[in-house]
Structures are given as C-alpha cells and as structure tokens.
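Model it.
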Amino acid sequence: MVSDIEFINDIPPQEQKDKPGLEYIMNPRPIFEHIKYKASNKLENKVAIITGGDSGIGRAVAVLYAKEGADVVIVYLNEDIDAQETKKIIEEKGCRAITIRGDISDEKFCDSVVKKTIDEFGKIDILVNNAAEQCAQNSIEDITKEQLYRTFEVNIFSIFYMTKACLPYLQEGSCIINTSSVTAYAGNERLIDYSSTKGAIVSFTRSLALSLAEKRIRVNCVAPGPIWTPLIPSCFTKEEVAKFGQSTSYKRPGQPVEVAPSFVFLASDDASYITGETIHINGGKIVNG
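Modeled.
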C-alpha cells in the first residue's frame, strides 16, 4: 500500500509567523494520501466532524474517511485555502463536505458546528477531536497566563465543548476519537503546557469511555509522535525544523498519511470491542506509560 510514496528524511529549514500554520506554503507539502489505497466502504453513509480537518493529520483523516464512504464536516480556525482544498479533494472522492470556520475554544461556536452538521446531514456518527495549538518556550517562566489559558482552551476545553454538543445526537455504534501526542507520555521540555493538555486528553478518553460504555459509544485516542504538519514550522525555529523527527528509530518525521489509518480503524466496526484505549504512532520513539 505504501509503494506509491517516497517518505522524506530531511526537512529544509523553514518558519511560519502565524499559528497554527498553513499547509499550502510548507516545503515539502505533507503527504496526506496513499494514491493506491483500496477502500472497502468501512465508513459508508457515516457523517464525521473533524476539528482541525483542514490540514495536517486532520486533512489526512478527512480524505481517508471520504475514501471509505463518509461525509465530512471540516472545522478550522482561519486557514481558508487549506480548508477549501481539503473540501475539494473530499468531493472528488464522491462524498459531501462542508467547511465551518471559527474558534473551537468558544463553546457557542462548538454548539453551532453541531447545529450546522445536523441541518446539513441530519446525523453525527463520528467526532474527531483533533485541532490543537502549541507554542514552544525555553522555560516554564516564559509561559504567560495568556498562553497557558489559550493552550488549554483550544486543546482540552474544546473537546469537552464538542463532545457535549454532539452527545445528544450520538447513538449506539457512534464513536469519539481524540488526538493526543507522544508528549503526553515522554514529555517535552519546551512544550510543557501543550504536553499537559495532551496528557489530559488521555485521561479524558479513559474516563469518557467508561461514562459512555452503557450507551455503546466508543471513545478512543491516537497519540502521534513527530508528524510533519503546519504546527511544526509555525512553532519551532528553522534549525529545529531541519532536525525534526530525527529522534525516532526511523530518523525521520512521520507523515499525516501514516497516522490516518488508525482513525479509520477506530471509527469502523473493526474496533467494536475497543474503547478507552490509545494507539501510539511515533516511529519507534521510546515512551513511558
């Protein structure tokens, strides 16, 4: 399945000024699709909401969901070009897509996402809580109150908001998939606040899975390692970007296309007896936990 892809070991030095970053100006562009992937309708007639679905891992998941037959709601902050490009790709796969622009740290916006989804598609089968922000700092002393609040509002509070808004429409067989990170387990000295939110997501996943077990709504998590997404050039220096992914056993960053299949698996009937779990996709990076 991977024969159509030549993975990239070395990333050219680059930076982006704006967060959370833009995919269409990255060099090289992240790999989000296996052209030779053979779908088997695992998600036929499903409707999925994907936060951060415009780019990076979110785009790869959105495209693969469409290949497997799902209609997709792309929720994004302000990356209009990336979002419209993803929407076009999904429609080329024969599925429907809508884009919803806004800030998921606002509970009212999250409520509006669900309302628009129901108005357009009439149901929700899959919620993917994927969007996140990060800002590297050399010391905890450099993390301002404003940064701390923003990181938690986007990365963990929004998951509560989106889940609460979707829950009245989820039924037996529906699922929630959250994106955590290797930093939840291994830590990161320059991403203390970000790593803390990702640890919270793991605990949230386990607790919510227990809470929703009687309703037969599954809740699981994916914890990627260093993946080449717009967050990277928008967060780190040129020198750090050039070394990105070298700490893994594969000595390269992962690509979004290598993460997306786990989201299909967890959303499909193949994972019918899996809940409260986390799948680690990190190129062999050793973690604790």
